[in-house]
Amino acid sequence: xxxNNLKTEIEKWITKQMPIIQMHGGTSIVRELxxxxxxxxxxxxxxxxxxxxxxxxxxxxxxxxxxxFEQIKExxxxxxxxxxxxxxxxxxxxxxxxxxxxxxxxxx
Length: 108
What we know:
- The chain is an alpha+beta fold and about 110 residues long.
- It has a single domain, classed as Fe-S cluster assembly (FSCA) (GMP Synthetase, Chain A, domain 3, 2-Layer Sandwich), CATH 3.30.300.
- The chain is about 30% helix and about 20% strand.
- It has helices at about 5-15, 20-25, 55-70; strands spanning about 25-35, 40-45, 75-80.
- A three-stranded mixed sheet has the order 1-2-3.
- β1 and β2 form a beta hairpin.
- The chain is globular.
- The termini are far apart.
């Protein structure tokens, strides 16, 4: 599977398996995918940055991605602590009405 296809599949999986993120105004995006290392970095944004259980959501995503995608050997979940839920927090993520942006994420 190509990098772009795997990235798309992971993003679809998160949306389907973790609807609570979107339901609570959070966002998610695959920030980085390195097939050679088997590394995926997921960023949670929006209301996830202020959520007291984002660590549980992160652990669930991390655990389940290992089982769902054999190519994945390492999962990192980043949750910005800025409290911002605008387009500079998570570009193109799911949840809320966040427009896409080509601006780099400086908060990581």
